[in-house]
Amino acid sequence: NAGVTQTPKFQVLKTGQSMTLQCAQDMNHEYMSWYRQDPGMGLRLIHYSVGAGITDQGEVPNGYNVSRSTTEDFPLRLLSAAPSQTSVYFCASSYADLASTGELFFGEGSRLTVL
Amino acid sequence: RKEVEQDPGPFNVPEGATVAFNCTYSNSASQSFFWYRQDCRKEPKLLMSVYSSGNEDGRFTAQLNRASQYISLLIRDSKLSDSATYLCVVTLYGGSQGNLIFGKGTKLSVKP
């Protein structure tokens, strides 16, 4: 059972470089999202999508782009990496009725360091 | 501002102890409530939902107090394997992930 798959698990970037964090889910979930988790800050929503072709900004969207061309994939792009983007990134997916089920399925996380 | 507040801990308890965590939320329009568990360097996973009437799942009991705007999690007979960070999660109107608010978590450490 693959669930939510994130790649890469670890990445080191230099300031100004760009990269894409990949996320794929095989549960046919409509909703997908990206969070970052920093010590003392908890999980903060970056971008989310309620279906293919639809994306919206979360709490901390600056410096990140997303697209949702298929139900399965939701990549996160860092346009010009900054040290402030050093974090652990989690991709998550869920069924549409999140308010009832409350269950987000998370990937294992991607640890990004920007030097 | 949407906020969910938790005592960060850490709560250090011996095996077999009973421990309780509280979580307060500021938005009275909050609809649904959940507890997630996150092991060290792992992803969060749903532990249990919190229903208005309160609910149990084995050694875990969750309670909701809408009037005072807090939820609680009680763990009885703590096990070493309960050591983790417990995240309080609240949804506002609708089921969109944009309306899902995470607390910063309470760290529990169960000692032999």
Describe this structure in words.
The complex is a heterodimer of chains A (115) and B (112). By secondary structure, chain A is mainly beta. Chain A has 1 helix and 11 strands; from the N terminus they run βββββββββαββ. Chain B has strands at residues 4-6, 11-14, 19-25, 32-38, 44-50, 55-57, 60-65, 70-75, 84-91, 100-102, 106-111. In chain B, strands 2, 4, 5, 9, 10 and 11 form a 6-stranded mixed sheet that branches. The model of chain B has no long low-confidence stretch (mean pLDDT 91).
> What level of helicity do the residues of chain B show?
under 10%
What is the averaged pLDDT score of chain A?
93
Give the terminus-to-terminus CA distance of chain B. 41 Å
Work out the number of β strands of chain A.
Answer: 11
Strand content of chain B: over 45%
The oligomeric status of these chains comes to: heterodimer
**Dominant shape of chain B:** globular
The overall pLDDT of chain B, averaged over residues, is 91
In the predicted model, the low-confidence regions of chain A spanning at least 5 consecutive residues are none
Derived structural class of chain B: mainly beta
Order of helices and strands of chain B: EEEEEEEEEEE
Structural class of chain A: mainly beta
DSSP E strands of chain B, number: 11
For the biggest sheet of chain A, the summary is: 7 strands, mixed
* Count of DSSP H/I helices of chain B: 0
Number of helices of chain A: 1
The gyration radius over C-alpha positions of chain B equals: 14 Å
